[in-house]
């Protein structure tokens, strides 16, 4: 019985259920019953706490695994308060209660007590005197039932998060397709304006001051052209594997984020070797870089700093390319560091889908590589560095053509 109790407690801890949601509340205001019950439960490694008639309803509303209640502590007022709290439980919850009743024959008084406790719902009656092993077994059964309710709660929450993330992802997909369409439509007038600027620059009668303005206009046109080409490349990239110049691709993605970096006045330090090449699918590698750079830009403070490094590297005896994405943002708390690559886990609230880093890990793995994170949070200076390794000996399986 001791081992069974330990197993139940381990299951509850494995779900990371807070202390207040797995405790056993004990309401036995007369004599030493409350202390003796808690001592019995604590010997079985079960968390418990003694309550009072005035506090029980409030403590249950804050969370509990079960409650042991001596029948004599109940009256009309306390039952109404308790029933009111129980009626407000979410659909997954049905808190089990253990009611310690007095021994004796059925009388009109016992019938009245039956009617009194009827609104409490999920109640197990134990007639006193109760054998310790009977009480302990009843508590363990109640906690197991509560454990299953918590599993249902977590499943319902995960489903809701998944549905919400899918809705956001669909919106992002629609926005992406719209962005690609706009970028495509911009190309035609952009080409016309570029040609006009070129004609004006070659006009021998143009004043020097006007030439300077045209030179600035040409620079901005080149930047817009670069952004539209990079935007379209996310959607037009071939799915076949090819030899990729990682440095050039990385510089191209950084160009897309230049406006966001300027708006936050971010100091960007680049250390990019443009001779590094690996085999892979360009569109997927570009998506990896875009997700990590976007996260850094979101995390870095105003006037903050970022560093992007790309150089030849090794991992477990394999040659390849290592790309580092660093920023001086607030860092990632240690408690959630192991979860950041899970699907639908997000620290960005309503603006995050929880899919960015999950996609990064999946795409890196598809290319035979690895992604790691190091971070410092809660002290100065704070920082985060994501490290991506892409092997030079990766052989992508080509997508099969459908008949």
Query: How do the strands line up in the largest sheet?
Result: 2-1-3-4-5
What is the total tally of β strands?
12
CATH architecture of the largest domain: 2-Layer Sandwich
How would you state the average pLDDT, rounded?
Answer: 84
CATH class of the largest domain: Alpha Beta
Q: Which word captures the global form?
A: elongated
Number of continuous helical runs: 13
The CATH superfamily of the largest domain appears as Histidine kinase-like ATPase, C-terminal domain
Fraction of residues in β-strands: 15-25%
Number of structural units classed as domains: 2
Distance between the termini: 61 Å
Radius of gyration: 32 Å
Succession of helices and strands: HHEHEHEHEHEHHEHHEEHEEHHEE
Structural class call reads alpha/beta
Task: Sketch the major β-sheet.
Answer: 5 strands, parallel
Low-pLDDT windows of residues: 397-403
The helix content is: 40-55%
Which topology of the largest domain does CATH recognise? Heat Shock Protein 90
Topology record:
Layout: H1 2-14, H2 19-22, E1 24-27, H3 33-43, E2 48-50, H4 56-61, E3 66-70, H5 76-87, E4 97-101, H6 108-117, E5 123-127, H7 132-201, H8 208-236, E6 242-245, H9 246-256, H10 258-263, E7 267-272, E8 277-280, H11 282-299, E9 305-315, E10 318-327, H12 334-337, H13 356-366, E11 370-376, E12 383-391
Parallel strand pairs: 1-2, 1-3, 3-4, 4-5, 7-9
Antiparallel strand pairs: 6-8, 9-10, 10-12, 11-12
